[in-house]
Amino acid sequence: MIDFNRKPNVSEKLNGRIDKALEIEQSFQSARNYLGGSRIGVECERALQYEFTKTSVDLDKDFSGRIIRVFARGHWVEEYMVEILKKSGFGLVSVDENGNQFEFEAHEGYVKGHCDGVFVSGPDEFGPYPRLWENKGLMQKYFLPIVKHGLEIKSPVYYGQCQYYMKKFNLTENPALFSVVNMNTMEIYWEELPFNSGFFDMLDAKAARIIAACWAGELLPRMSQKADFFKCKQCNWHDRCFSKR
Ligand code: SF4
């Protein structure tokens, strides 16, 4: 029988308070007014249109305090990686003289991106330099498939981010170094990514198509016509998307 008189326990009460504080803080942060270079590899062009136009997500998909904490964890692990790479003898530049991440702009400022860092020097066996660096912190269930099958196959979004950034930061000459930290075990997997001009061209054309469609007020085709397609079920705009023709 459901106990309607059950009182929230201390975890529920405390976490509720923390989540509320984080969600209020998030609501005051300005939403980005550009298409993120880290996102162009996302498969569905319509979803990227919703993202670019800051369309409200479905009611049940709003950012919760827990998701905000997950994003914060990604920043911590990145800072830790910078620290241990410097200790290991690499010249890694992660911010400019004002303490800001390096930024590029493309498509008249409608596409922007910020890189995790650039290896400017280090042991010869890992050169030549400079090399773009991108880092992710992932749960084991996402980490292991990347180790087994490689980034391009298992995460075209991260692979695309690296390709787009290599070009836009003028770092195509040497392969990028991509690291992913297993957040369950703290293992680190590295992959070298040579520049793939065909992949970059495909992404850049996609970015142009998304921006043009948004300005024209057109919705690009869905990635699937089936509302129960598993990728669509996970989409933040599922209900909105399938309520339109
Ligand atoms: S529900 Fe599917 S088709 Fe619609 S925007 Fe999301 S991913 Fe794309």
Describe the structure in your own words.
This protein is an alpha/beta fold and 245 residues long. It has one domain: Lambda Exonuclease, Chain A. Helices cover 43% and strands 16% of the residues. The chain has nine helices and eight strands. The chain has helices spanning 10-28, 45-52, 65-87, 140-149, 151-154, 156-168, 197-216, 230-233, 238-242; strands at residues 35-36, 91-93, 103-106, 111-114, 117-121, 131-138, 176-182, 188-193. It has a five-stranded mixed beta sheet with strand order 2-5-6-7-8. Strand 7 (176-182) and strand 8 (188-193) form a beta hairpin. Helix 1 crosses helix 3 (65-87). The protein is globular. The protein binds iron/sulfur cluster (SF4). Iron/sulfur cluster (SF4) is lined by residues 44, 46-47, 222-224, 231-232, 235, 237-238, 241.
Number of helices: 9
CATH fold node name: Lambda Exonuclease, Chain A
What is the spatial order of strands in the main beta sheet?
2-5-6-7-8
Please state the average pLDDT score.
Answer: 93
Radius of gyration: 20 Å
Uncertain ranges: none
